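Archive transcription. Copying these from loose printouts into the bound notebook so they stop getting lost. Printout 1 of 2:
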Amino acid sequence: MLAILVPLDPISLGKQTSGRSKRTKKGQIAFGTAAILAAQGGTSSVRTPIPGLALFEEALARLELCMPPQREHCMRRENTTPRPHWRSEVEKLGLVFHHTEGRLYWDESVFYRLTLPQVDVLEDATNELSMLFIQALEHVIRNDLFPRLSIPPEAIPIVKWSWENREPALYGRVDLAYDGINPQKLLEYNADTPTALLEASVVQWLWLQEKFPHADQFNSIHERLVSTWAKFKGRLDGLLYFGYMDSGTGEDLMTITYLRDTAEEAGIRTKEIEMPDIGWNSGRGFVDLDENKITSIFKLYPWEWMLAEGFAAHLLEIYRQMNWIEPIWKMVLSNKGILPLMWELNPGHPNLLEAYADRPGTLHEYVRKPLLSREGSNIRLQTRERVIETSGPYGKEGYIYQAVASLPSLDGWYPVIGSWIIDGEAAGIGVRESATPITDHREKFVPHIIG
């Protein structure tokens, strides 16, 4: 881990990716305390199941997962030789956090190989899920189901206004369980503050160009970000601030630095700012350290944390006078309480896992997740054979219970597909893998190819 983390200047992280495949502290502190408190806390048809056979069929499905003769059709994990100077190469692109807590994070000694048909179904499933999320959002708004998601009552009118005015959203990442054969299953949606973006976009693309120049990759993330920022340009007022919280790893700083690059490539002027450096001026609203008024901001800081700050009332008061990216309606979709609602609206959908609010329902094996959590914290995985539980500061808002997804185990690693949604459509994937079925902050990012 590098000890000194500085923004790359000039910002130029994505400039090398043109031609990519189409497959591809003045005043009062307004924000930052919620993050500190959190850190301190530590395609198949749908069949009607036959009574009595559901558990048996589920067990068979597990046994058949990537076993002969299906193995040749599975997503494959293959070994390769890392580039001689891979550390300096990825650091030049901003990936200074290639190790976390002494563990390897960016791992190019292996890669995942997918076929074009597998990528096609991943893309289709991601677009389908994007549509289902919007339908669920509208269902919540029409039926005032905000209490099920523990949305603060004072924020509800603004959430409704934000969606009714169709405030545009930039990006999100759906995490999927997929073995290359069976339908992809939605694990959750990182709709508000997704990371693992830099490595999914430019870092694995440059790795591909150097290691497998004649292969392809499901990756049009950079181009799609630039084109989406170009759509936003007309509604932004001058300077676009990029707010982040220094996590100590450099990940958030490098993420917003890369996003700034894509915005500037689209002709938008940008400036970074740490969330604690945003102040409140009763005459001007939110301001930077030089008392300049902030009218447009991208914030890599969760909406639930912002609404827990002392200046939340001011935020809601002037929300309509500013441009917020991501918009506040995204807090509905980033809440795991949306998953049981999606199952209620689409029971038996091949890309959804059975899910319930506050109780396991009919599930004998399940994953219990807090409505609001990050990086695998406060997760309980309960099966007949074992119980795995992670610690953390989350859970006071409540939990959901989700069916256990059949993650493939390849060489003892459990891969999760992070499928990126940009401007509402699928744009590419990144693969993260963990030594346990719960993906947490100790995961590894592994590149992929099509071929």
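Printout 2 of 2:
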Amino acid sequence: MVVIGDRALAFEPERQIWNVRVDLGQWWCEKTGLPFVFAAWIGLKSFGKVLEEKLNTARDRGIVALGMIIQEKLEIAQKTGKPLLVGEFVLHDYFRNAVHYTIGPKEREGMDLFVSQFASRFVCPVAVKKIALGD
């Protein structure tokens, strides 16, 4: 079973029937020495700098508004009567410390390694080569 999102933040393995827990990001880092990129905004090169600038602006605005976004999430939970699985501190800690919002050389190296080592086993090798080369 794969647990993601708020459920992963609130996951308590000692209260589950499974006896093995693997943090995929931690496992990847231990095996490769590189960070694992779980998500990225990407676009075709033909979109050029305009798309890159718009995505970077949206990212930067989101980072600045993190406190407000978390507060809104808490208020919605209270109004709807659907409690969050984790508290405000966990949300702030996760979004400010665990999530990284830029991709640098090490992240790119990790993505390239993932594509070459793992994705080629499940995806058409020609498509994988194009992805890795950025074509």
